[in-house]
């Protein structure tokens, strides 16, 4: 599910507004953390929601806004 980062919280946590209008708190996945990929305010990201708590998720991919290939990859 895609969303936009609206707020940067502490310890790699972010508030993300999803495409369906809901807001979730998401943390960075280990792959993104290991590769030092920076997540900034306003970035378009792909979020994997927790099956146990739908207000929490994990950021698994950062989309580049000027690259249409990234948008095709997430579908």
From TrEMBL:
<dbReference type="GO" id="GO:0043022">
    <property type="term" value="F:ribosome binding"/>
</dbReference>
<keyword id="KW-0694">RNA-binding</keyword>
<dbReference type="Pfam" id="PF01176">
    <property type="entry name" value="eIF-1a"/>
</dbReference>
<dbReference type="InterPro" id="IPR012340">
    <property type="entry name" value="NA-bd_OB-fold"/>
</dbReference>
<dbReference type="GO" id="GO:0005829">
    <property type="term" value="C:cytosol"/>
</dbReference>
<keyword id="KW-0648">Protein biosynthesis</keyword>
<dbReference type="InterPro" id="IPR003029">
    <property type="entry name" value="S1_domain"/>
</dbReference>
<keyword id="KW-0699">rRNA-binding</keyword>
<comment type="similarity">
    <text>Belongs to the IF-1 family.</text>
</comment>
<dbReference type="GO" id="GO:0019843">
    <property type="term" value="F:rRNA binding"/>
</dbReference>
<keyword id="KW-0396">Initiation factor</keyword>
<protein>
    <recommendedName>
        <fullName>Translation initiation factor IF-1, chloroplastic</fullName>
    </recommendedName>
</protein>
<dbReference type="GO" id="GO:0009507">
    <property type="term" value="C:chloroplast"/>
</dbReference>
<comment type="function">
    <text>One of the essential components for the initiation of protein synthesis. Stabilizes the binding of IF-2 and IF-3 on the 30S subunit to which N-formylmethionyl-tRNA(fMet) subsequently binds. Helps modulate mRNA selection, yielding the 30S pre-initiation complex (PIC). Upon addition of the 50S ribosomal subunit IF-1, IF-2 and IF-3 are released leaving the mature 70S translation initiation complex.</text>
</comment>
<keyword id="KW-0150">Chloroplast</keyword>
<dbReference type="InterPro" id="IPR004368">
    <property type="entry name" value="TIF_IF1"/>
</dbReference>
<feature type="domain" description="S1-like">
    <location>
        <begin position="1"/>
        <end position="64"/>
    </location>
</feature>
<comment type="subunit">
    <text>Component of the 30S ribosomal translation pre-initiation complex which assembles on the 30S ribosome in the order IF-2 and IF-3, IF-1 and N-formylmethionyl-tRNA(fMet); mRNA recruitment can occur at any time during PIC assembly.</text>
</comment>
<dbReference type="InterPro" id="IPR006196">
    <property type="entry name" value="RNA-binding_domain_S1_IF1"/>
</dbReference>
<keyword id="KW-0934">Plastid</keyword>
<dbReference type="GO" id="GO:0003743">
    <property type="term" value="F:translation initiation factor activity"/>
</dbReference>
């Amino acid at each position: 599910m895609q969303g936009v980062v609206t707020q940067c919280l502490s310890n790699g946590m972010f508030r993300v507004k999803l495409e369906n209008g809901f807001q979730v708190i998401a943390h960075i996945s280990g792959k993104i953390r290991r590769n030092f990929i920076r997540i900034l305010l306003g970035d378009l990201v792909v979020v994997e929601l927790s099956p146990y708590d739908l207000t929490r998720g994990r950021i698994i991919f950062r989309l580049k806004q000027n690259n249409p290939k990234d948008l095709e990859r997430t579908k």
